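Hi F.,

I've been meaning to write this up properly since the lab meeting, where we talked about keeping a consistent format for the predictions we share between groups. The idea is simple: the sequence comes first, exactly as it goes in, then the structure tokens exactly as they come out, then a line or two of notes. No screenshots and no reformatting. I'm using this chain as the first example so we have something concrete to point to.
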Amino acid sequence: MPTYQQKQKHVQHRFLSSKKVLQQHTVRKSKSVKNKEAQPTEVMAEPAYTVPAFRERSTEENQEYRRAAAFLGRELHELQYQLNQIKVATHAQVENIALTREVEKRMSVKKQTPEMMDKAPDFLVNLRSHTIWEKSTVKLFCTVQGKPAPIVQWYKGEKVVNPLDIPGKYKIENKYGVHALIISRCTVGDTALYSAVATNPHGKATSKATVTVKRMSATGDLSWLPGSVPITPTHASKLDVTLLDKFGVTFGAEGETCKLVCTLNVVPDLPNLPPEVMWFKDDTLLAPCKWLEMAVSGSAASLTFPHLNKDDEGLYTLRIWTKDGTAEHSAYLFVRDAVPNVAGSPGAPMDVKATDVNKDYVLVTWKPPNITTEAAIKGYFVDRREVGSSDWKQCNDSPVNVCKYPVHGLKVGHSYHFRVRAVNSSGISRPSRRSDGVTTLDVTESKIEVIKIEGKYDIVIRQDDLEGYVTLPGPPIELHASEINKSYIVLSWKPPKPCGCAPLWYLIEKVLGDSSHWERVNPSVQLHSPRYPVFGLEDGKRYRFRVTAVNKHGSSDASEPLDFIQKMNLHGTEKAVGVPSAPGRVVASRNTKTSAFVQWDPPKHPNNLMGYYIDASVVGSKTWTPCNHRPFKHTRFVVHGLVQGETYVFRVQAVNTYGLSDESQESDPLFIDAALSAPSVPYGISLLNCDGSSMTIGWKQPKNTGGTKITAYYVDKREAESLKWSEVNPTPTKERIYKVENLTTGKYYEFKVQAGNLAGVGVPSEPSRPFLCEAWMMALPGPVYDFKFSEVRDNSLVVQWKAPLYTGQSAVTSYYLERAKKGSSEFVAVNEEPINHRFMKVTGLEKGERYVFRVRAVNAEGIGMASDISQSVVAKALTGMKEIECGVDAETGDVFLSFEACEISQTSKFVWSKSYKEITQSERVTISTQGRQSKLTFTNPDEMDLGIYSVAVTDTDRVSSSHTLTEEDMKKMLELSYNIKNPVVPLKTVLNYEILEKGHVRFWLQAQKMSSAVSYRFIVNDKAVTSGEGTKISHDVSTGVIQMTVDHFTKANEGTYTVQLTDGKAKAQTSLVLVGDVFKAALKEAEFQRKEHIRKQGPHFSEYLSFYVADDCTVMLTCKLANVKKETAFHWYKEEEEIVLDVAPNVMSGSCTLPIPMFSRKDQGIYKATLSDDRGKDTSVYEIFGKVFEDIINAIAQVSGSSMQDLVLQCTPEGIRLQCYMKYYTEEMKTHWFHKESKIASSEKMRIGGTAEMAWMQICEPTDREKGQYTIEIQDATKSYSRSFDLSGQAYTDAYAEFQRLKAAAFAEKNRGRVVGGLPDVVTIMEKKSLSLTCTVWGDPSPEVTWFKNEQEVVSDAHNKITFEGGRFASLTINTVTVEDSGKYSINVRNKYGGEFVEITVSVYKQGEDIPEPKLGQMSKPKATPPPASMKSPTPTPPPSIKSPTPTPPPSVKSPTPSPAPKSPTPPRSAKSPTPPRFVKSPTPPRK
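Output, unedited:
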């Protein structure tokens, strides 16, 4: 490495190390602050604060108290200032010392990570911002590292820098790992934010810098560009940052996307200098990765989780550097399990990590999931995959029951990810999040030793050099069991010394007990790491192990055997291992309205504790819900997401590698509500009335009541010119209005108020403005007071107030209400006309806006003064808010109004009002409350009960609702109430009947519900019917069914059926008239079912005959049989004629099938199947005519149409044929041929036909008019199938030429010369007799005849006489045959179209010799001969340019035996006629 790179790397390493130490030091520094902030709820465990008793001081004591307080305040201020200066100086010195020591300590530690390990890009030297003059050149450079080497891309703003865009402007360099961007002759337009983005397969990193180009003005001053960065750098820590809207406790589920956002106020807000933001999870500094995305600007900082996982659960802290230190905010993120793939399966494990990395061995650890309602976990499966691959492979065949697993058999130098799945009796969980990638490397001791001499020189010694020429390794040393559990034992050892100067691998042997027979453990695995997990050991057995080292030169001696060891029994008596013991006592206390503070004692036997799981259950539900989904390390936890007003109990489980402990004992029940505290200050003190000696004041309730009802207010007063306050009411008042007496007319007075509750007395309010004590004499009314808001929704709310105490010279008659948005002074009238009641519903509000209100009272004299502005209220409904429901009690028939509160406190009460006047005692209604629900029940509802009813829940955040009870609603409810109080048994189904299997008839009805005390009776034709012979009556309370079954249904059962039933007070009656045609249909069905039952007592058809078409288009008639035995006979018939199959039907198979191959119209008829034995007979008939026949043809067409192949061309002597092959074709199928768009009908010109395997259409004597596209279409019942062929262009030309050739060949074949008959194949004759060979020949024109003997032409003479009469009869007569006449004779018959020759074997024997047996081989066939070369065919042959797929023979074929005379036209026997025989196919491609 070059020297400058070494220096650069060294400096950068010091810089990074110092920066990391500073960050960690800052983290530790903030931990104490954070712990204090994160655990404020510990105070809740302390006893509640008791309100002290206040005593009165005398005037002298008050003066002395004020004097001493003023003096001590000044002294205390000076002392605090000095102590603070000393504290700041000391703290800075201590921090500097600690920071220096930490840096020195870190610099001395040698980096242990192998240099070859894959890693994401990281900038060693970041880009640096530059401010330069115009027309200068600037060079931006950075140094980046990563494995594999990253690719760096340069950006100007958001645009990629391309040197080719402006040649000579930009130059990009990359030398020795230093990346540089050179910008030449910079202009003002080059001012921008430049960035270098480094990318490799493991991630990307970005470094940014600003380039500012300045222009010299005429005066020499600098002219700053708009938006440019000043030369003087501003560090992020110099910014004043305030956190505004902070993220709260967040809930999510695995797989979802979540975002934590905190809005900021940054001063100054510089676009190129965002605040320095750090995110922490459980005090661990976070960095952007695949699972985390960070963003920061001048207005917000955000942390995004693209794919939530339980690994992400924890306490997240946002820390921002400010000029005064840091600003922080923390909140917890809860991540619940995703919906399981299999119901009841456990949640996914989490925190999967790979440790103890060796060459081919890795130890994978994880944390178990929490289980509440799921079955216990039986074990885990570990999966692995190589980095860059998407294929996961399971590592263990059977589940491992501890939260760690040694994975072996890995490849050296490869990178891997791991994941884990949990298993229980219901199934397998979703996989965990994959682990970080790890690379299998040799992490054993280095073989290089460095010795320094006087700090200057290094002597490097290799271990191999010290070993010399030793080739065999020594035995491994320090063999021991590094881990023992129920599933496996991990053996560990150190490599041998010497190692033999070659790569090593190891062999492991084991022996059982005291045996001396050592057995190989890893016979098929070549082990390279000094670790190995041994599986498959028997429980309770003791084993010994030893290890042998092997290299290419040989093996070492075995190591020292290990002492006896055996697998650990986690369920044995040893308590030092296994799951932890249960945690101790659990204590729960209040925290907020939706959270509780839970703390517990740690378990007595932690056993390497990982953390705790906390569960919660609503009292009485017996259902436990997990509060956290990732083990929590501490013994106190704030449980969020609880429901206010519910009572919970909590329990805790401890977690370690072996699983979950037993549950702790349940905590005491805790009612969820906010923790008690003293109330905040009252505010808005106003003067309501004054008579000259007394003043009546009012005030607004504190914004924070402290979690309980305010029970006391204390009022103090003083004259405006005085500093002395005096108590007004030693006895507290509960109202927010108080009359202060014994005042002096004409003086100004100030007041302040304190509020108190069970937790104590709060801070006094600010003094009111001075009020003049002067009697009110105005004619107009005074201000209203005590605003109250209820029924707050997203766009409406209800405002209530109290009448003014001072009414003026006349009574108050009405009111005007005004509203305004908070912060605005523009009030808008809500009601144009005055209202005479002190409440009003305000609508048309904007959701989320804050509003304030004021009211003016009106009397006969006019409109009075405006009230003080009310407290602000947000137009937004509470989450889960419900409305009042109006209904009728299903049991009693009472009319009621019901309301369920969305939140409630322990001291809450439901206050019902009519027209917003509280209902206290009334004979017209009764009020009952249970838990969150309150019900107002009307005693005798009528018109007097109509109106507006409202309910409010005290000690809550305005939980309230209202309902207007109208006359129409009352009428409906009274009608329903009457029906309930005078009940009728509700019937789900009236009286009905159905025919049962044996011909029985069931009469039945069904009530919606009925009790066990129900009574009923059946009445038939005015006569009551009871259960007896032939009639059964019963009922089922659970289903509400009442039924009567008549066994034998006859004509006597015609009539009217009635059921009367009584259930308590409820009654019902239902009837069924069964006469006339309805009765006849029922009787017919009953008789049919009775016969069916009798039929089914013997062998019978469970399914009658039907058909289906097999894949090969065979029609199958099938039926299903029932109640058969081996002796049962089965027969097939068609038209009463039995069909005998090759294989007899097997009745025991349950079905029989009759195949009808190649189905066509001839197969129509009546088919019958019979089934019989000694128990009876059954018959099934199937008529294949009409619609059935058509359905079968359509089914065949569907199979055949689907199998249609492409149309192919076949040429014949008659014309051109188009063929379509398919599985089966019959003319009964709906088949149509089309030429272009016209349908083709069969004719002499266009012939249509087919065979069993194809359909064809032939064009006879084709002309150019027949060119074009041809289509065949086959239709079934629903769709059509078609294939097309384009007979035009070259395809038509080739086909037409082939047709002409075949036509000529056929003509020649028809008219050529040939032997019609008369010649034998073999002739045997005695010598000296005459032999006559005579045959009939034919040809047009008349052929020529030539005789040959042994391929030599026979000339007619006295011995051989040749005759040819009438052009038809040819003969060869041999007179007085001799032995020399024996031989092979042949006749050649030919004309201009060709001919043939026939061979005859003549055998002559002497007199007295035995007649030789003729050799009867295969009779020779006539051989066709070509026409003479001089003859011309009447039909021209195709031109030689047209090629046929069928090769034609050459024009001349040489005989293997040359003829003696060239004049003989007889060709040799092997020669064939150029005319193709009849079986030769056309050039059309054959069927596929």
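Notes:
Residues 11 and 1113 are 86 Å apart (CA to CA).
The two ends are 71 Å apart (CA to CA).

If this format works for you, I'll send the rest the same way.

G.
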